[in-house]
Amino acid sequence: MTLTMKPERLEEILSAFPRINVAVVGDFFLDNYWILEESLNEISLETGKIAYQVVAKRKSPGAAGTVSSVLRSLDVNVHAVGFSGDDGLGYDLRREMKNRGMNLDEFFTFEDRFTPTYTKPMLLSNGVEEELNRIDIKNREPLSRAHEDVLIAAIDRIIDKVDAVIVLDQVQEQNCGVVTDRVRAHLAKLGAEREDRIILADSREHISEFRSMGIKVNNFEARQIVGGTDDISLSDVAQQLYQMSQRTVIITRGEKGMLVCDQDGWYEVPTICISGPIDVVGAGDSVMASLTAALCAGASLREAALIGNVTASLTVQQIGTTGTATRNEVLERFNTKFI
Fold first, then answer.
1. CATH code of domain 7-338
2. pTM
3. So what's the pLDDT on residue 116?
4. What is the pLDDT of residue 229?
5. By three-state DSSP, how is residue 163 classified?
6. Measured between alpha carbons, how far is 269 from 152 in angstroms, rounded to an integer?
7. Does residue 278 surpass a pLDDT of 80?
8. 117-125 and 28-37 as β-strands: parallel, antiparallel, unpaired?
9. 116-135 residue pLDDT tens
């Protein structure tokens, strides 16, 4: 990789992180890990099937909570905008968010909604964990207009208190999560009116519907949005996406790194080579978090993308948990790879 900044420049950018405020608007899930000890398996007398035995539990904020956790590990101030249900899982989610120092003034409890939860059974055998079939709790009925009004009002209150807004649309079912059609349209309106605020969006299923804000997509999603084929270069795709909204475009390409585009043109940012086992779950979230923070700190898009890749190289090495990274770890990894 071509070195695009000196360590002193990286230190300057990272030193600004504690002064930065970011609103994370979206679907906060509870990542609920159950550690199952294989040697303790029992056979159920009633069913004859294996009864797994839980020996430990881990809980952490997932989805929008993953982005928020990475921001907090980098000392960025986080304002969560979203909801949980009025249940025990909601209590666990809010507790884990508070423990990480997230501001929950605009995070609501909706009694008629589930707390979105990913329960991940991890089978422990000879000291190694293997993830079994995940158990999901999601809302499958559309969010009410009254709840949409609450969230829209919260976004309006928070916009002047933050340097950037990250939108994380995790729920595949249309209008069943935080980022409904109405909420998305309101964010687009703010994006068009408030060019002084960085707004970046990531969506599992609906990224083509976002307008007037920056987007993070993978290379397959990028081609689908513009109706392109493999014959069209990814740089042309990125420039077409930029022309659609005149906002930052971030295209992730897995082991090939990123391609980013803004008013200054497009750049390829190769990935950071690491060895050993990795867990790529949450890699894109760590890129989104650290790249946004770097942009708020005055970094160019090329510099911010490099910081995003360095951060992701740290988080993917944390197996079976929500990966995080400190500013010191980012600086040390940068120095190890480039100095």
1. 3.40.1190.20
2. 0.94
3. 98
4. 73
5. coil
6. 35
7. no
8. parallel
9. 999 999 999 999 999 999 99
